[in-house]
Amino acid sequence: MTGFHADPAALEALARSLEDVAEEYGAAADETSGSGDLGPLVPDALQAVTDEWAHRIRAAQQDFDAAAASVRTAAKVYRTGDATAVEELRRADG
Protein backbone atom coordinates (compact mmCIF):
# COMPACT_ATOMS: atom_id res chain seq x y z
CA MET A 1 0.00 0.00 0.00
CA THR A 2 1.41 3.38 -0.92
CA GLY A 3 0.62 6.76 0.51
CA PHE A 4 -0.09 7.87 4.01
CA HIS A 5 -1.40 5.52 6.68
CA ALA A 6 -2.54 6.55 10.14
CA ASP A 7 -3.07 4.11 12.98
CA PRO A 8 -5.74 5.57 15.30
CA ALA A 9 -5.15 2.86 17.92
CA ALA A 10 -1.46 3.77 18.05
CA LEU A 11 -2.40 7.43 18.34
CA GLU A 12 -4.71 6.62 21.26
CA ALA A 13 -1.87 4.69 22.93
CA LEU A 14 0.42 7.68 22.42
CA ALA A 15 -2.21 9.99 23.92
CA ARG A 16 -2.44 7.75 27.00
CA SER A 17 1.36 7.77 27.34
CA LEU A 18 1.42 11.56 27.11
CA GLU A 19 -1.29 11.77 29.78
CA ASP A 20 0.76 9.47 32.02
CA VAL A 21 3.78 11.74 31.63
CA ALA A 22 1.59 14.77 32.36
CA GLU A 23 0.41 13.10 35.58
CA GLU A 24 4.02 12.51 36.61
CA TYR A 25 4.84 16.16 35.95
CA GLY A 26 1.81 17.16 37.99
CA ALA A 27 2.96 15.04 40.91
CA ALA A 28 6.46 16.52 40.65
CA ALA A 29 5.03 20.04 40.61
CA ASP A 30 2.94 19.26 43.68
CA GLU A 31 6.00 17.94 45.51
CA THR A 32 8.12 20.91 44.47
CA SER A 33 5.49 23.53 45.15
CA GLY A 34 5.99 25.87 48.05
CA SER A 35 2.49 25.10 49.29
CA GLY A 36 3.96 23.04 52.12
CA ASP A 37 5.69 24.53 55.13
CA LEU A 38 9.43 24.27 54.63
CA GLY A 39 10.10 25.48 58.14
CA PRO A 40 11.50 28.65 59.66
CA LEU A 41 15.09 27.91 58.62
CA VAL A 42 14.37 28.00 54.90
CA PRO A 43 14.91 31.46 53.50
CA ASP A 44 12.36 33.17 51.32
CA ALA A 45 14.76 33.00 48.36
CA LEU A 46 14.71 29.20 48.40
CA GLN A 47 10.94 29.30 48.62
CA ALA A 48 10.85 31.55 45.55
CA VAL A 49 13.10 29.14 43.64
CA THR A 50 10.98 26.10 44.47
CA ASP A 51 7.84 28.02 43.52
CA GLU A 52 9.41 28.89 40.15
CA TRP A 53 10.39 25.25 39.56
CA ALA A 54 6.88 24.14 40.39
CA HIS A 55 5.49 26.70 37.96
CA ARG A 56 7.77 25.52 35.14
CA ILE A 57 7.01 21.86 35.83
CA ARG A 58 3.28 22.63 35.82
CA ALA A 59 3.72 24.37 32.44
CA ALA A 60 5.36 21.21 31.07
CA GLN A 61 2.46 19.19 32.46
CA GLN A 62 0.01 21.42 30.61
CA ASP A 63 2.04 21.01 27.40
CA PHE A 64 1.86 17.21 27.70
CA ASP A 65 -1.88 17.38 28.40
CA ALA A 66 -2.38 19.59 25.34
CA ALA A 67 -0.31 17.25 23.18
CA ALA A 68 -2.36 14.27 24.38
CA ALA A 69 -5.59 16.09 23.51
CA SER A 70 -4.27 16.96 20.05
CA VAL A 71 -3.18 13.38 19.36
CA ARG A 72 -6.55 12.09 20.55
CA THR A 73 -8.31 14.59 18.24
CA ALA A 74 -6.16 13.40 15.33
CA ALA A 75 -7.11 9.79 16.05
CA LYS A 76 -10.78 10.75 16.03
CA VAL A 77 -10.41 12.62 12.74
CA TYR A 78 -8.71 9.63 11.12
CA ARG A 79 -11.38 7.25 12.41
CA THR A 80 -14.14 9.51 11.14
CA GLY A 81 -12.43 9.88 7.77
CA ASP A 82 -12.00 6.14 7.45
CA ALA A 83 -15.63 5.48 8.36
CA THR A 84 -16.83 8.09 5.88
CA ALA A 85 -14.66 6.65 3.11
CA VAL A 86 -15.96 3.13 3.76
CA GLU A 87 -19.54 4.38 3.68
CA GLU A 88 -18.99 6.27 0.43
CA LEU A 89 -17.31 3.24 -1.18
CA ARG A 90 -20.24 1.02 -0.19
CA ARG A 91 -22.69 3.48 -1.75
CA ALA A 92 -20.58 3.64 -4.91
CA ASP A 93 -20.55 -0.17 -5.15
CA GLY A 94 -24.32 -0.13 -4.92
Give a description of the structure:
With 94 residues, the protein is mainly α. The chain is 80% helix and 0% strand. The chain contains two helices and no strands. It has helices at residues 8-32, 44-93. Helix 1 packs antiparallel against helix 2. It is rod-shaped, with a radius of gyration of 22 Å.
Essential attributes:
94 residues, mainly alpha, rod-shaped
Query: How large is the share of residues in beta strands?
Result: under 5%
Poorly predicted regions are none
User: What is the rounded distance between the termini?
Assistant: 25 Å
What is the count of DSSP helices, taking H or I runs of 4+ residues? 2
List SSEs in N-to-C order. Answer: HH
**Structural class of the secondary elements?**
mainly alpha
Shape descriptor: rod-shaped
Count of extended strands: 0
What number is the mean pLDDT?
87
Instruction: Give the C-alpha Rg.
Output: 22 Å
> Major sheet: size, sense and barrel closure?
none
Report helical residue fraction. over 70%
Task: Summarize this entry quickly.
By secondary structure, the chain is mainly α. It is built from two helices and no strands.
Question: What secondary-structure arrangement, pairings included, does this model have?
Answer:
Layout: H1 8-32, H2 44-93
Helix pairs in contact: 1-2
